Each structure stands twice: as structure tokens, then as C-alpha cells.
């Protein structure tokens, strides 16, 4: 059986009190709708349409061009939103799965559960029911009494529910599945609510029941999965659940965490086995960490790649690449564009930016290396600075293999220190130092030269 899908992502989210489209608010480092898309992906729904509305261009820019987008120009309800996808989806699959883009906790297994119940019970319509802690904002499920089988009688949106109906605790989640042909023909039959002027998708449930059509309503195994995000409080709750899932996934995969609750890892992060994460660590974005690393305490890593056997202690690593067997910190900062070779030691209070550091190089402490290419087994003394900015543009420093840079050396770029060359402590190097030479003084001058390279 084939499946297409619709994700509703056009709501303004007024209760969020934000200028950001609700589905683009982040939890565990990623927009809410990205979590929905990730859960849906294994079901291979095709085609997939995303219904946009409020700040549609921002939603499309955030998600990219890999999806079909339909803009709901007028916000006339969820049923009207789904109807916008009809030209793209009608007749393309046997079943249509409808999801809400602000429900980041729904898992693949739950989506599979709904689709399986839909097929098994040969339903025209299937929805996931649950009991939210706070049902405010949800459509309520009205059933016959238990002695009469507890059959779903109808569903009513909260905005048109009576006070008695609002007391019902059972609600409709943001997961619904329809027979394709039935969905489109009956959306035409449905009429906007006379008070609100909106066409509610949930009205189709009552319509199917009135027609005697089979409707399935499996319950969520975990009530949290069906919870949407409508307020900042609910966003924080979703954040906590998603991050706990990430920690559990990583620990089951062989990663150790000394204090999981104080460890914050985005859902997009991958970490190798036998890596140990210390408390107070934040790992974000598209980060990949290899095996047998020690990260933290108090480390912050974002959008970076670390090879095996790296140690990052109380330091920040941004958009950088570390090959492996590298030590960083404490209190150092690898800024974007840093490329660190194997067996490099970067001690405390070192800042590196847009620089490549060759294998075996040692930068012990108190140094700034920016816009530089450092070779193999170079020693960078304490207090070394690459003076890369001349007031107009950034200039590059090159230090070749085996050079020894004395403490407090100022390298005024553009400048090259040749292979095996040495700078004396406190030197201000304004001209290239040939291979094997010794440069000392302010400004540095050559006092000894070894022509062997």
C-alpha cells in the first residue's frame, strides 16, 4: 500500500509571543518541523507536501527545496489547509497521512502504529488519540459510555466546544490518516463553522461517523509523543524530552556520560563508542565525534568533526576539523575554519581562527593563531601572536615544518618562517625568515643562518 503525506506548517503560533514561525522554533538544536520530518522519513511517504502560511518564505528557506510547498494564503482552518494540497496529492497514493509541524515528539514507531491500524482495520479515517496533561487547544474526543462500547461518537474543536465538552480529557493528536479518495471528496462536503468561518480537519471524523464509515482511534503509547508545542512552556518540555532521547540513544550506542542531565547534545550529533562526556558539556549542530574521546567538563562543540582519541577540556570548538589524538584546553577557543592535524597539543588560553595546524605541533598556552598555515612539529611559544589584520585586510602567516617560535613572538603578516627556523623570545618578525635561520629583536633581524633545509 502506498502513502503520501501532508505537514501543516502555516500557523502563526500566537501563544508563543514570537515573530518566528512556530514550526521554526528550535528544540534539541533543530526546528520543530525537522523532528517531524525525521520521524516521517522511514515511512517513505511520496509525495510529501508542506502547507505554509505565516512567513512562508522563512519556512521554505529553512527546509530547502527537497519538498513540495503549498501556501495557504488565508488562514481558514486545518481542513482548508489540507485542501490546498489536493492538486499535488490527489490520486498519488492510497492513503494520506496528515501531521502537524509543531508536534516534534511523535516518533516513527507511532506513525507506523497509526498507519498499521488504518490498514488492519480497513478504516476510512484513523487518528491518534491521547490524554494530554493540559488539553487546552486540542480537539476533544467524545465517546459513547464504556457500557456501550466506548465508540467514538464525534470530535469537537475547542474553539467551538461547549463548557461541558471542554471538560473531556481525551484529545485528537496531530496524526491523522485518510483514504485518499475519501479525503478529497469529503473535504468538499465539509462546511466552515458558522461562528469561526474555519474548516476544521477534525470535522471529517464526525462526518465519517455520521456516514457509518469505519474510524480507528489507537491511543498513543506515550502521551508525550502526541503533545504539540503551543507555548514557550511546552517548548521547554519538548526540549527536555528530546534531549533525554538523544542521551539515551547515544548511551545505548556505547557513549558514556558521567551526569546525563547536565549534558546537552543536539539530535543531529553523532558520537563514537567509548567516548566519555563530562558534565556541563554542550554539543551542537552537525557535529561528529569519533571513538574513545574525552569531552569536557564544560566543553562547547558546534558544527565540528573530531577524530578518534581527542580530548577537549573546558574549551570551545566551532566549525572546525580535528583529525584525531588531539588535546585541547582548558580554556581555549577553536574558531571557525580551524583544521588541526593528528597529535597536536593545544593547551590553555589559545585562540585559533582560519588556521591549519600540522601534525605533532605544540601550542602550549597564551597564543593567537589566525589566518595561518602551521607545518608539522612546530613549537609555538607562549604569547605568540599572528598579527593578521593590517587595518584593511586579513593577511596570512606561514610557519613551515620544524620551526621554533619563541615566546612572545609577534608575526606581522604576511610573513613566512621557513623550515627549521627559530625566532627569539620577544621578536617582532616583519620579514620572511629563511629556512634554518635565527631571527631576534624588534624588528627582528637575522643573526645566524643555516643554509641547510
- Stretches where pLDDT falls below 50 for ≥5 residues? none
Largest sheet descriptor: 24 strands, mixed
- Going by helix content, strand content and strand pairing, the class is alpha/beta
Identify the CATH class of the largest domain: Alpha Beta
Instruction: State the separation between the terminal residues, measured CA to CA.
Output: 71 Å
What count of helical segments does DSSP give? 9
- The CATH topology label of the largest domain is Spore Coat Polysaccharide Biosynthesis Protein SpsA, Chain A
Average of the residue pLDDT scores: 94
What gyration radius follows from the Cα positions, in whole Å? Answer: 30 Å
Number of domains: 2
**Strand runs, count:** 38
Report the portion of residues in β strands: 25-35%
Shape: elongated
Range of helix content: 10-25%
The CATH architecture of the largest domain can be given as Alpha-Beta Complex
CATH homology group of the largest domain: Spore Coat Polysaccharide Biosynthesis Protein SpsA, Chain A
